[in-house]
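Hi there,

I know you've been waiting on this one. I reran it after we fixed the sequence typo, so this is the corrected version. Both the input and the resulting structure follow.
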Amino acid sequence: PTSEWKTIRSIVMRDNFIASIVSFATESITDNMRDVMKDKYLSIDDFTFEKIDRASKACGPLAKWAIAQISYADMLNRVDPLRQELKSLENQAEETQMKADEMADMISTLEKSISQYKEEYAMLISDAQAIKADLTAVESKVTRSNALLASLGSERNRWESGSDQFKTQMSTIIGDVLVSAAFMAYAGYFDQQMRQSLFTSWLDHLQGANIQLRLDMARTEYLSSPDERLRWQSNALPSDDLCTENAIMLQRFNRYPLIIDPSGQATEFILNEYKGRKITRTSFLDDSFRKNLESALRFGNPLLVQDVENYDPILNPVLNREVRRTGGRVLITLGDQDIDLSPTFTIFLSTRDPSVEFPPDVCSRVTFVNFTVTHASLQTQCLNQVLKSERPDVDAKRSDLLKLQGEFRLRLRQLEKELLQALNEVRGKILDNDTILSQLERLKKEAAEVQKKVDETDVVMAEVEAVSLQYLPLATSCSSIYFVLDSLHQVHFLYQYSLAFFLEMFRWVLSDNPSLKGLTDYILRLDQITLDLYKVVFERVSRSVLHNDRITLALLLSRIFLRTKAEVKDFSDEFEFLLRAGEAALTAGKVTRVPGLSDTQAQALQYLSKAQAFSKLTQYVDAHPEFLEWVETVAPEANVPVCWEDELVQGEVAVALHQMMVVQAFRPDRLVASAEHLVSAVMGKAFTLSMNKELDLAAIVTKEVKASTPVMLSSVTGFDASSRVDDLAVQEKKQCTAIAIGSAEGFNLADKAIMSASKVGRWVLLKNVHLAPQWLVQLEKKLHALSPHPDFRLFLTMEINPKVPVNLLRASRIFTFEPPPGVRANLIRTFASVSATRMAKEPNERARLYFLIAWFHAIIQERLRYAPLGWSKKYEFNESDLRMACDTLDTWLDSVAQGRTNLPPDKVPWSALRTLLSQCIYGGRIDNEFDQRLMNAFVKRIFTVASFEADYALVPGGVEGVPDKGMVVPDGIRREQFLQWVEQLPTQQVPAWLGLPNNAEKVLLSNLGTSMLANLTTMQSMIEGEDLAYSVSPSASEEGVGAGAGGADWRPAWMRSLHSTVAGWMASVPESLTVMKRTADHIKNPLFRFFEREVNLGIGLLRVVRRDLNDVIQVCESRKKQTNYMRSLVSDLTKGSIPSSWRRYTVPLGVTVYQWVPDFVLRIKQLETFSEAANSGGAQALKALHVWLGGLFVAEAFITASRQYVAQVNSWSLEELDLQVKVANEDGSGLTFDDSSFAVKGIQLLGASCLEQDKLQLSSKILTILPLTNLRWARSSEKKDDAEQVMLPVYLNSKRSELLFTLNFTPSGGNTESDFYQHGVALVCSNLSG
């Protein structure tokens, strides 16, 4: 019954139950109890040990014990009367001693009974021993049972936890597998940012479709095991997430992989990963490619095909897996041959060109895997590398954690498998199996150890993270530096640098740095490594950078240094203000003139006052007259007055930066020098000294450069650096094979020489490789696959040429050589190239003529430095022109002298020499009329009979930097005399030597400063250290644009800055432009037709600009998704570049979008005045408008339209009309306008000043803005005498690339036409300049 069972269960569950069983006294059993047991239980047939044991293993022994107790109690019951009877008999024996004899027979009988009873007692004792043995066995089993239950209990908890995790995994497995499969299939082509963006959008989409998935899924951990990741890292795979994801794709692909590997890291990893399977490396250029492919297909070896940009269709059947089975064989057709296909065959395709675009048919056959490094991945790589080098103990702990994690998990799985297998193989009773218990105990013990290690993991990881944070700024610096180097090609096409080049510098700083010897303190070593990294990067990179761009590189590195120093302000706002200074002239509006300052300086003062630290600048200038004296000093950057609020500018770097801002505003010609001061303040004076460090080519070639790295010596046009290699080969006692490139024969010789030298360790010099850019593509791929001798070196000399393959530039160590500037250096180079024997030939006048040619060559070449002032463009005047001039001189002189020793100066063929030099040899390169006039002026002045006079002045006197009597031709007829005169010249000349005004040096330096700022603007986004194209951004918060959950702005710095800038532009750009109303009368007017075209062009461009600006704002506010067009637009705007869709009219090269937008606004406003005038006053009203020529989209068309208008109104012929000019007085008076006159404004006069109306004289001012100008078309019959006038060019802007028309002015002050041309006097219509 239930009540009895409850009673029994309560007894069984007592803590002393087992103890009471063991110590149970059988004597305590009463007869009543025995009767109850027998009647109620033992009498039942089913109450047997076998049946009870079968029903319950625990109850069986207990029942057996109960039966034994009853039996034993019966036995005791039976024995007890006998003992009592024995006692009674003994008593009777004592009492009846006397009756002994009578009882003899009875005693004998009793003795027999006693013997029988003894035997029975012995049996009972034996049974008691058996019962004790059974009790011992039961106790042992109970103990084992307890141990088994305890062990299984702990395992149960762990298995239940595992079961719960499994249930969770199963509930999300569909979504997890779906998103993982999508990631494997589609994400490989993209970089890390785009992958994350795709992954996030997929998660959102699946959530919207109510598909369960793990939102916190780590892709690398889900798709790979710790052991695999450790193996990959040991095989040279970088440990960042991008590379790990790529390794997973390379392991789990369905379609064969095509790897985009610019850095070569994937190639190294694959070769190590499949080394055991004898992987073969080949390329389509390899002669044995077909053989390698067939061998891999047959024997199942992995095959790596490199440089697959030019895809070979022979791989189509392989990539498509076009197999067929015949008689148990698996065959694949390769060309016209059937080949057995091994099931273990695999192929990897790779390219080092990230910009290559494969056709769709190739894309459909492969799985793209993009190893292009990103900021985050490179940062992780560099952090791991520096930890391995500097803190191997911490790195070992981190690696051990990952290793232990994998090993423990694997060990637990093995123990679980062994336990389950042992449980499955149990024979008989489980409690009798000691193996099970020992395994359970071992599993429990090791599981506890695992848990202990897991608990320790948090402590170790905290330590690792703390140490990693110390080195994180260095890793961030590495990432930013590399991506700045990688983007330097935006400054100049020559600046191409590979990741291997950067990592080589980084490894040198960590491992071979002599500055670290003796340093043991981790913090001091970190500081030293950081400084040395910047120093080494600058030293090695600057070798390949043109001299004028080195300061740009130094500033970029300085900005990165400031951004990664947590304790130092990065001065982003100040730099942004500095870079946007170009807007000052366009947005200043009405400028208040300041006595002692030019209009440009006054504009800059007004702009600089907007900065917080310079809010009181105007009052400072007014109160300190010495400020104006400082503006005129020679080196103002050395002593900049403290004109800012001192309390807002603290620290050496802050002071240097604000000094640079002041110099940029008032002395832009000294901006570069001021920038050097800033670099010194940030990086130390030793850093800037390395800018002009002498190049030790021998040490670099022998110690730095590896045999597999070509040494490329690039030089400006006309300068040959091959002599340096020849001298180095002699110095190092190396055999060097020199080959000139340019012909098919040269290509074959070069290939043979490289193959031969690479085996034995000789040097090879290939000259003028820029002449064969297509062959260089093949050469680079062959060099990539070459395994040369350690002593092998390949030198390439070239002129700087954009056609040289990018991959070759990235693979090479580049050195850029520029000839030293100056007339003296140029003359010395000329005399070095012309032999003394040649100059000493008869007639004796030959040497003087050679000197004149050398001087002429130096003048026209040095003026190129001042382009567009010296020449309108940089013509390629080079050494070949000089040789041709010398050859021409020799030919004509020999033909006239006919062997005579002396030749009278008047007999020299001056006319022929002047014509050939000005029209053919040098003049043949000129395509600008006024450059030709300048050339003619120089030729006419230098090559004249008067040049043989003793006091003939090459440069007229009376100018600062030139003797009073001028630069007189040296008196002599021997080469040594002329060379001695040249060597006595000062190293630096004044521009007056070149016929330029001395302020031309200011123009040159100002242009260099402007170019430097433009380059910094272009590189701005790279300094931010963030990728623009695919930044992942959450949805905009309801609280506000870009606000996150806590109200913080999630957007990166560049996006916040762009949003603010574009919003400002959007507010300033007019919303619309009025259309000009066309009528039958209006259309007949040439001026109306011109202005209508301008307005229509403005309407179309305005619509595009406002649409794009609005789209950018929406993208920044996360209200619109990016398209490829938008990504390109955002990228351009962030770099300060003008988007291609906005470039619908000519602007100077180098103009930033910050300058373009204000200028565009002014153009639209001018067009609005045209529309309003035409719509209110008709076409005739357009004639009276004051036109800003520089603000027209097609300025030269206005001149044509005005000419047509005058011809139409007066019924004159177009051919008989000439343009005349009159300039108003400073107050705008002095002009009258008739039907043939047009008022224009905004014209700037360079290098001269206008005295009255059309009279000009040379001026020391760089630029003069002319008042209102009258352009009048007059008939030729009204034209003044040409002899009294000088024709000057009118250019669109200061770049002088767009000649609009010409104007005639009257020279005054004794200046000749030649003087105006030599001084570079010209007019420009627009102040927009790059």
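Quick highlight: Confidence is low (pLDDT under 50) at residues 1025-1047.

Best,
R. S.
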